[in-house]
Amino acid sequence: MTATTGWPFVEFQIPADPPAGLRLAIIGEAPGAEEARQGRPFVGRSGRLLDETLAAAGIDRARCLVGNVFRYQPPGNKVGLFFASRTRAKKEGRAIDERWGPFGTSDWVLADFSGELDHLRQALESFAPTAIVALGRTPTWALTGQNGIMQLRGTVLPCRLLAGAVVVPTFHPSYILRGQLAEQPTFLADLKLAAARSG
Ligand code: URA
């Protein structure tokens, strides 16, 4: 189902001339205020850190697919608004889509937004990346069905949305900006790992 929320909406950045060699996709969770203002993913503070780290890893962002699991900017940037527990969904009279598996211990994607996962699948099928960077727990779940970014980051996992592609989960840049600057070298190493798997 497709949501009709009235929330700001930001499309994926898709290279006009897809590269023949390196084929990398970078997926975040949902656009923030600056992304909604400019209509492009990852152009705010998180985007600047992402750009710097991609450059340090030798990755040309302009040649990558860049997008978010959810193209809507939720109020207050609360990604939790895309999910609900069975109890909360029932109380609020909303449907959940259990086909995508649990998010965390007890949440499920709301049926109003599960079409975003179908859209993500279609975008990946058409760009055909070999490797996909999952920035944080939301894209890690969407792309692999697995939960737990701290245990999963820096690993190489199969992508449930695109047969043959691998997913490299890493930190969301906003996590690093929120006082975890010591994790920057790890973030860089994860991006280098993804680049090495994308060629
Ligand atoms: N955070 C995200 O997850 N995506 C963006 O596009 C910007 C910030």
What is the structure about, briefly put?
The protein has eight helices and seven strands, in the order βααββαβαβααββαα. With 199 residues, the protein is α/β, with parallel strands linked by helices. The protein binds uracil.
What is the SS-derived class?
alpha/beta
Helix count? 8
Would you count the extended β strands for me?
7
In terms of DSSP E residues, the strand content is 5-15%
In CATH, the topology is named: Uracil-DNA Glycosylase, subunit E
Bound molecules: uracil
CATH architecture, by name, is 3-Layer(aba) Sandwich
What gap, in angstroms, lies between the N and C termini? 35 Å
Give the tally of structural domains: 1
The Rg value, from CA coordinates, equals 16 Å
Whole-number average pLDDT? 95
Overall 3D form = globular
- Biggest sheet overview: 5 strands, mixed
Spell out the CATH superfamily.
Uracil-DNA glycosylase-like domain
- Strand/helix succession: EHHEEHEHEHHEEHH
CATH domain class: Alpha Beta
Helix-residue proportion: 25-40%
List keywords for this structure.
199 residues; alpha/beta; five-stranded mixed β-sheet; 7 strands; binds uracil
3D structure, described in words:
This protein is α/β, with parallel strands linked by helices and about 200 residues long. It has a single domain, classed as Uracil-DNA glycosylase-like domain (Uracil-DNA Glycosylase, subunit E, 3-Layer(aba) Sandwich). About 35% of the residues lie in helices and about 15% in strands. The protein contains eight helices and seven strands; from the N terminus they run E-H-H-E-E-H-E-H-E-H-H-E-E-H-H. It has helices at about 35-40, 45-55, 85-90, 115-125, 135-145, 150, 175, 185-199, and strands spanning about 25-30, 65-70, 85, 105-110, 130-135, 155-160, 165-170. The strands form two sheets. The chain has a five-stranded mixed beta sheet with strand order 2-1-5-7-6, sandwiched between helices. It has a two-stranded antiparallel sheet with strand order 3-4. A hairpin with a 7-residue loop joins strand 6 (about 155-160) and strand 7. Uracil (URA) binds near residues 31, 32 and 44. It comes from Azospirillum oleiclasticum. This is Uracil-DNA glycosylase. InterPro entries: UDG_Type-4/5, Uracil-DNA_glycosylase-like, Uracil-DNA_glycosylase-like_sf. Keywords: 4Fe-4S, DNA damage, DNA repair, Hydrolase, Iron, Iron-sulfur, Metal-binding.
